[in-house]
Amino acid sequence: MTVSVRALRPGNRSDAEAFARVRMLALPYVFFTADSVQHVLTRLPPDARYTALLAEEDGEAIGTAQVSLAHDSPEPGQALLNVYVRPDRTGRGAGTALLQAGEERIAALGAREVFSWVLDEPADRLFAERRGYRPGSTAQFLLLDLAKAELPPVPTSPPGVELRTADDFADDPRPLFALDAECTADEPGDVDHLLDDYENWLDETWRHPLLRHDLTTVAVVDGRPVAFTAARTDGGTRYGTGMTGTARAHRGRGLAKLVKAHSLHRARAAGFTEAHTGNDAGNEPMLAVNRWLGYQVCAQEVQHVRELG
C-alpha cells in the first residue's frame, strides 16, 4: 500500500467531494460539503496562501490537511495546519505525510509558528507531541437532538430589542460585518483574528454556501444589530451555529441566549433534527447558555503550536 499527498485541484468536483467525505468521517461535528470545500479553496484572499491537501492510498482518499497563513491575525508569522485522517485508515502514514507536506509549505512561506487543532484523544495528542507540538487552548463540540429535545421557550426580548434574521440585511450587510468584527476581536483562543476587510468578509462569510440567512438570528436595537448567532446547515437535516456574539455595550442582557434559542426553535420548525455548536472550553458564559438550551459535550479538540526553526 502506497500513501501519496497532493493538492486539491480548484474546480475539480471529485476532489472536493473526496475532501468533504474524509473530513466528515474524521470530524463529524463540523459541516463540510463539496460546495463548501470549493468555496474556501477559491474565496480565501490571496494573502492566506491557502492550500487543501489530500492523502491517497492506492487512489483512495484517506486523509486531508488545510494549510494557510493566519492572514487575519494581527500577529505576523503565524500559520494554520489542520490534519485529519479517516478513523478506519489510521496507522498507514497518511497523517505523517500530510503534516510533513504542510510544514514544508508553511516554512517556505516564512511563518515562524504553526497552530494545529488536534482531537483530544490519547493517540492524536501523542502524535502531535512526538512531532514537537505543545498543547494550548481547548475547544468543545456540543450536540443537541432536536427531534427529541424539550427546548426551553424563547426568552422575552428586553425592552427596545427586536429580533430579525440575516435576510433582513440582504440589501446592506455591512452592519452585520461591523458586529461580527467586534465580536471576533474578543473571541478567546490562541490565535487572534481581526476582521477589517468588508469585501473579503462578503466573499468568505456572507456568501458561504452553508450559511442560512433565514436561520441566522439578529437582535436589533434602534435599527442596529447588537447580537447574532450565525446558522449553517449541511444540506440535509443537520443544523449548526458558528459564531454567536454580542456587542460590548449590550453584554450581560441575555441576548446570546435570546438569539440562540430563537434560531434553534426556527431550525426545528424547518425540519432539522440535529443541532451542533462549539465553544472555547474556558468561555463559561456561552457554555452556560448552551447547557440551558440542552446541548451536551460530545468531543473536544486541543490547539497545539510548534515553533519552526
Could you characterize the architecture of this molecule?
By secondary structure, this protein is of the alpha+beta class. It has 2 domains: 3-111, Aminopeptidase (3-Layer(aba) Sandwich); 144-300, Gcn5-related N-acetyltransferase (GNAT) (Aminopeptidase, 3-Layer(aba) Sandwich). The chain has 8 helices and 12 strands. The chain has a 12-stranded mixed beta sheet with strand order 1-2-3-4-5-12-6-11-10-9-8-7, sandwiched between helices. Strand 4 (78-85), helix 3 (94-108) and strand 5 (113-119) form a beta-alpha-beta unit. Helix 7 (255-269) runs parallel beside helix 8.
What class, by secondary structure content?
alpha+beta
Biggest beta sheet summary: 12 strands, mixed
Secondary-structure element sequence? EHHEEEHEHEEHHEEEHEHE
Which CATH first-tier class of the largest domain would you pick?
Answer: Alpha Beta
Assign an overall shape. Answer: globular
Indicate the percent of residues in helices: 25-40%
Could you tell me the strand content as a percent range? 25-35%
Extract low-pLDDT stretches: none
Q: Which fold name fills CATH's third level, the topology of the largest domain?
A: Aminopeptidase
**Main sheet: strand order:** 1-2-3-4-5-12-6-11-10-9-8-7
Oligomer category: single chain
Straight-line N-to-C gap = 32 Å
Query: What is the radius of gyration computed over CA atoms, rounded to a whole number of angstroms?
Result: 20 Å
Secondary structure: number of strands: 12
Counting structural domains, the number is 2
Number of helices: 8
Relevant CATH superfamily of the largest domain: Gcn5-related N-acetyltransferase (GNAT)
CATH architecture of the largest domain: 3-Layer(aba) Sandwich
